[in-house]
Amino acid sequence: MTWKLQAITGELEGQEVTVDRDMLVGRHQDADLQLQAAEISRRHAAFLLKDKALWVQDLKSSNGTFVNDIRIDQDKLLMDGDIVQFASIKFSVLAPAKPVENIVGTEVPEIEVEPVSTPVEQSIQQPSEAIATAEVQQAPVEKTPAQQMNEQGMPELSARDANVQVSKDGMPTGMGVPKPAPIPANVDIHATPIPEACDIKTSDECAKEEVTTQKNAMLGLYTIIALVILAIIAWLFFK
Fold first, then answer.
1. Per residue in 87-100, pLDDT tens?
2. Over 61-101, what HEC string results?
3. Alpha-carbon Rg for the chain in angstroms
4. Nearest by Cα to 12 from 112, 101, 90, 96
5. Are 6 and 80 in contact (CB under 8 A)?
6. Which region holds residue 179: left if phi is over 0, alpha if psi is between -120 and 50, else beta?
7. Per residue in 13-51, pLDDT tens?
8. What angle do CA 50, 54, 59 make, to 5 degrees?
9. Ranges 41-50, 75-84, 118-127: which has the least confidence
């Protein structure tokens, strides 16, 4: 496993330098990586290998050592793709490739992949007329009073007009209005019934007779009121 440096700028641009041990960088003749630019110090920096990791160390150079455009003053751990710069000369760090270990005697099971059939959804297009007929609901038709009367068994106005004579005021003529039943001469509907004096021995029978009398009076009153109402309805109907 060896680290490599690829020159990006400077006199070594495009070349690769292998770092397989500690290396000195500078203009000195004993430097492992000699850079002859005037801005490079004689002993500018050093690459150090520690536990298969690559570090860079600035040796108090005049123009400094940079890692990813940041000047360093202590040892800096380098990663794959980092940019190391000595003054204005730049190098790209290339980490060693990891070996692929072959496992002998291990069979890799084959995985059968079943084809997945995707159902094709077919859109069913309906005629526009069918959709309009299904979606549009018919509005309820309001019936006229004459139609409602016909459904209830009442004769039409045309059939009634042939036999009924109407006056200028719109009142039917020649039609008898039902008269209420005659009220007996001895019955006063406005008078309060006076209970008859009862013998003390038959008080229960007197009470029953009094209740019956009140019921009959009320029934007669209701009958008269009903007849009056029917007469008014008949007059309004034939108007």
1. 989 999 999 887 65
2. CCCCEEECCEECCCCEECCCCCEEEECCEEEEEECCCCCCC
3. 61
4. 90
5. no
6. beta
7. 889 999 999 999 999 999 999 998 999 999 999 999 998
8. 90
9. 118-127
Which amino acid is residue 145, in one-letter code?
P
User: Is residue 60 included in any domain, yes or no?
Assistant: yes
Of the candidates 95, 85, 94, 92, the residue with the CA atom closest to the CA atom of residue 25 = 85
Two tokens, residue 85: 């710069």
Residue 62 is part of which domain span?
2-95
Are 84 and 91 in contact, with CB atoms under 8 Å apart? Answer: yes
Q: How many domains does the chain have?
A: 1
How far is CA 108 from each of CA 98, 103, 104, 105, 178, rounded to the nearest angstrom? 22, 10, 11, 10, 111
Q: Would 184 be classed as within a structural domain? A: no
Separation between Cα atoms, residue 43 and residue 30, nearest integer Å? 9
* CATH number of the domain enclosing 55: 2.60.200.20
**Residue with structure tokens 């006076």?**
194
Residue 146 domain-assigned (yes or no): no
3-state secondary structure of 120: coil
List strands edge to edge, sheet with 3-7: 16-19, 3-7, 89-94, 83-86, 65-67, 70-71
Does residue 144 fall inside a structural domain? no
As a whole number of angstroms, the distance between CA 230 and CA 209 comes to 32
CB 20 within 8 A of CB 28: no
